[in-house]
Write a structure and sequence with these properties.
Strand content of chain B: 5-15%
CATH architecture of one domain in chain B: Alpha-Beta Complex
Largest sheet of chain B: 5 strands, parallel
Number of domains of chain A: 2
Helix content of chain A: 25-40%
Strand order of the largest sheet of chain B: 5-2-1-9-17
CATH superfamily of one domain in chain B: Succinate dehydrogenase/fumarate reductase flavoprotein, catalytic domain
Number of helices of chain B: 18
Radius of gyration of chain B: 24 Å
Strand order of the largest sheet of chain A: 2-1-5-3-4
CATH superfamily of the largest domain in chain A: Alpha-helical ferredoxin
Shape of chain A: elongated
Number of helices of chain A: 9
Oligomer: heterodimer
Chain lengths: 251, 646
């Protein structure tokens, strides 16, 4: 059953990208354990506004785990202490009365802080722009059923395609690598006949862009898979490596 | 009252689009490079249009309020996308999708637009497959279909419970390909705050960089708005937190008409409200109604015992359950359209048969389908939805029925557009949920994705080109013209005015107050007296906002409260127009249910002799009554009958 709890928050506050940040301490009382974590943040912000202070800036939008907008490093884990969820799907029933909760932004060279808990993830868009698509224009394409695709391939492509681009994989990685993100897209498209045609070229371009943007290398720790709210498998990284090698051999 | 001309092409409905394309004007490749198009919004309609314009060779600027185009709320659509492919060989056709959509919209949509939508629907699926969208497939390797509300055929294509995500990523990737090719320039965390008119034509926008707080002037030979719906007027809705009606509202204030604002869709299958700090409502896909059965206890004492926590749903014997949709609508059963299902749930709860602690919930039960098909099959179909439900409610829907209740989900009303999707401002186009054109008074499930992509991939590339063909000699403007400078100044003044109120209440506290008024009086059931009260209350809220809102923080840099306040100022005015429109429309149709107009068994009763028109509202100035214009609806191909799902 739901009950009310009192908690202490240690929240990272940073005015903008240039200034230094620090932790601030706040008390939030009588939070229903049925509330979502972000509703608890709303309560904190309402409290701050009523006290005449500036609310905490954090990214969020759909609040149902699909847009990938919410981030937050909660008690040392991207998306907090529950498995297979985004921060917006995390509920206060995962915390106990009297808990102290540490809340930080994603920390990675690829994702600079904009304000408080908000980071800049445009690097992900740049990686997609470098090759994360099938090069077809609108119109002039064959009938949707012209090329049969084995169901297991379509299903595996869908597994990879469920990436929401939140960046938890980068935040979880000690090297700040974006390999899980890149591999999910490379793998999805390489599995489908429509994307197979330019698979090697795609892998090469996306990896080059990732390196250029300051993301680290993959050392197979697997932390990304553990923290991925959509359970994207590191097996996709293996497929990315195969496509990448093919491209190198062809060069 | 000015006559409204939708400029529908000549000929029989099935020939209109062909005739349009035959006669439309084109722009040659060298001239396309000299023409700029602004697209606002990166959902299905905006991203698809911008990518297509870029591929055609136009110069495109695209704007999104989020950090990435991939976050647009189209991403949250779950169940599927309709298309008249007739792959299952179950009797579907373009004509059938057309007539289902007109009927589903309770005969308040424009026939010509709906026919075109059905006609291009098949190309959408081809396009998406070519982009690598991983639709669900059969073991033979071909595409799978499921059925959806308001149809007796299976025409819905899907990608698990994440169809919107996959379609949006397809459009987003096509868009990013054009960004890479430098035909499209992308502006993220950047919000349209006004539209610039030069000689009566839309020639650009004023945007606000949400990171720096600075305003910017952008020129375009044409402007396309694909900025979504205004469901968040209700505060609690299934929309994303950032979804707003401000772009549409600024267009209205600049002279674009606003059509059928009172047509808002209440979705029957959402997770019920739990408490006062709730920030949004979560939808459970309509596709669940394929295999879930909706019921409440047949005996009031059982419902009371459940509410008191003394009985569990699994304790109620089969013969003591009232499967009220199957009872009232045997032909369509659990797959009646959304407005019908929502009202039926409300009727049972109002009569005292509701469940959950609040009594405002009904059950959606999978027990029978799990027994019939096995848990594996249900998990494969709806696994992610079941997981989502369990994370929110802490109940396992494999073991106990889900609880659901209706919530605001989609707005069929929006900016008025003609057949070309052009507003009453020349050069300003509006697509997707932001316009009013295709769904009448009620949208069928899996049709929003279809409309967004139809507008973006297959309609705007033709119609905007037709408009620009007359503009090839118009030179680019610099943004320093007086129209740009003056509009920017008005925007800055508006933001200053909001900041200077310096009152005592947070933006959200006022927004919640507005939401309650909307839900109580302009929600699922409306009546004359309540709507009159609502208008008074909303005007009082407007006064409260402009005298008592508090915006902490600085003018420079990111200020989220200021962004929200600017949108709330518009929501308040949108809410007022919704109530005015609902008061004017003295009939019940689709999502608009006026208690005074119902049949003996509680079904919606249209008044076709008086209200077979689109209400088009024109802005007359702050504090002035808006002016009503009417676009008469002619039904030449679909016969107007009382909707019947029995």
């Amino acid at each position: 059953m739901e009950k009310n709890i009192n908690i202490t928050l240690k929240v990272w506050r940073q005015k903008n990208a240039r200034e230094k940040g620090r932790f601030e301490t706040y008390q939030v009382k009588d939070v229903s354990t049925g509330s979502s974590f972000l509703e608890m943040m709303d309560i904190l912000n309402e409290q701050l506004i009523n006290e005449g202070n500036e609310p905490v800036a954090f990214d969020h939008d759909c609040r149902e785990g699909i847009c990938g907008m919410c981030s937050l490093y909660i008690n040392g884990r991207p998306h907090g202490p529950d498995d297979g969820v985004t921060t917006c799907q995390l509920h206060m029933r995962k915390f106990k009365d009297g808990d102290t909760i540490w809340i930080e932004p994603w920390r990675s060279a690829g994702f600079p802080v904009i304000k408080d808990l908000i980071v800049d993830r445009t690097a992900f868009d740049k990686i997609i722009a470098s090759g994360g698509y099938v090069s077809v224009n609108t119109g002039g394409v064959p009938d949707a059923n012209a090329i049969p695709i084995p169901k297991p391939d379509a299903d595996e492509a869908m597994d990879a395609a469920s990436c929401i681009g939140c960046g938890a994989c980068v935040a979880a990685c000690k090297n700040g690598s974006a390999m899980l993100f890149v591999s999910a897209k490379v793998s999805q498209l390489a599995l489908l006949p429509q994307g197979k045609v330019e698979a090697a070229r795609r892998a090469k371009n996306m990896v080059a862009k990732m390196d250029e943007l300051g993301f680290g290398n993959c050392t197979n720790t697997g932390a990304c898979e553990v923290e991925c709210p959509k359970g994207i498998s590191v097996a996709h990284i293996a497929r990315l490596n195969r496509e990448f090698l093919k491209a190198k051999v062809q060069d | 009252m000015a006559k409204i001309d939708a400029r529908i092409p000549e000929g029989p409905v099935a020939q209109k689009w062909t005739n349009y394309k035959k006669n439309q004007k084109l722009v040659n490749p060298a001239n396309k490079r000299k023409l700029d198009i602004i697209v606002v919004g990166t959902g299905l309609a905006g991203a698809a249009a911008a990518a297509s314009f870029g591929e055609m060779g136009f110069n495109v600027k695209i704007f999104t309020i989020q950090d990435s185009p991939r976050r647009a709320h189209s991403i949250a659509a779950q169940g599927g996308i309709n298309a008249a492919k007739n792959y299952p060989n179950d009797g579907d056709s373009v004509n059938r999708l057309f007539s289902d959509t007109v009927k589903g919209g309770d005969y308040r949509a424009r026939e010509a637009n709906v026919y075109r939508l059905a006609e291009v629907s098949t190309s959408i699926i081809d396009q998406c497959v070519a982009q690598g969208v991983p639709f669900a497939r059969e073991y033979g390797g071909l595409l799978d279909n499921r059925s959806f509300g308001g149809a007796q055929v299976s025409r819905t294509f899907y990608a698990r419970g994440q169809t919107g995500q996959q379609l949006l990523l397809g459009a987003y990737q096509a868009l990013m390909r054009q960004v890479n090719l430098k035909t499209v320039k992308l502006y993220t965390r950047n919000e349209l705050v006004d539209i610039v008119l030069v000689d009566g034509k839309a020639r650009g926008i004023i945007s606000r960089d949400l990171v720096t707080g600075e305003t910017q002037r952008h020129f375009g030979h044409a402007v396309v708005m694909a900025t979504g719906g205004y469901g968040n007027t209700f505060f609690l809705s299934t929309n994303a937190m950032g979804s707003n009606g401000s772009a549409a509202w600024q267009a209205y204030k600049k002279g674009a008409m606003f059509a059928n604002p009172c047509f808002a869709q209440i979705h029957p299958t959402c997770i019920p409200v739990h408490g006062e700090f709730q920030s949004k409502l979560t939808l459970m896909s309509e596709s669940l109604r394929n295999d879930g059965r909706i019921w409440v206890p047949a005996k009031k004492e059982d419902a009371e015992a459940i509410r008191a926590g003394k009985l569990k749903p699994t304790d109620i014997a089969e013969e003591n359950r009232d499967y009220f949709l199957e009872r009232r609508y045997p032909a369509f059963g659990n797959l009646v359209p959304r407005d019908v299902a929502s009202r039926a749930a409300k009727e049972r709860c109002d009569a005292g048969f509701g469940v959950g602690t609040t009594g405002l919930a009904v059950y959606l039960d999978f027990k029978e389908s799990i027994e019939r098909l096995g848990k594996d099959v249900i998990e494969a179909r709806y696994g992610n939805l079941f997981q989502m439900y369990e994370k929110i409610v802490d109940d396992n829907p494999y073991d106990t029925p889900m609880m659901i209740y209706p919530a605001i989900h989609y707005t069929m009303g929006g900016v008025w557009v003609d057949y070309e999707l052009q507003t009453t401002i020349p050069g300003l186009f509006c697509a997707g949920e932001a316009n009013f054109s295709d769904h009448g008074a009620n949208r069928l499930g899996a049709s929003a994705l279809m409309q967004g992509l139809a507008d973006g991939y297959f309609v705007l590339p033709y119609t905007v080109q037709n408009y620009l063909a007359d503009d090839i000699k118009t030179p680019r403007m610099t943004g320093d013209e007086k129209e740009f400078v003056e509009t920017e100044k008005a925007v800055k003044d508006r933001f200053e005015k909001i900041r200077n109120v310096n009152g005592n209440r947070s933006v959200d506290s006022i927004h919640k107050e507005l939401g309650l008024v909307m839900w109580d009086f302009v929600g699922m059931a409306r009546n004359k007296e309540g709507l009159q009260q609502a208008i008074e209350k909303i005007r009082a809220i407007k006064k409260e906002f402009w005298s008592n809102v508090r915006i902490p923080g600085d003018k420079e840099g990111m200020n989220i409260e200021l962004e929200k306040a600017n949108r709330l100022a518009d929501f308040i005015e949108i809410g007022e127009l919704m109530a005015i429109d609902a008061l004017n429309r003295e009939e019940s149709c689709g999502g608009h249910f006026r208690e005074e107009f119902q049949t003996e068994d509680g079904e919606a009763m249209r008044q076709d002799d008086k209200f077979a028109y689109v209400s088009c509202w024109a802005y007359k100035g702050d504090g002035q009554e808006p002016e009503l214009h009417k676009e008469e609806l002619k039904f030449e191909d679909v016969k107007l009958i009382q909707r019947n799902y029995k």
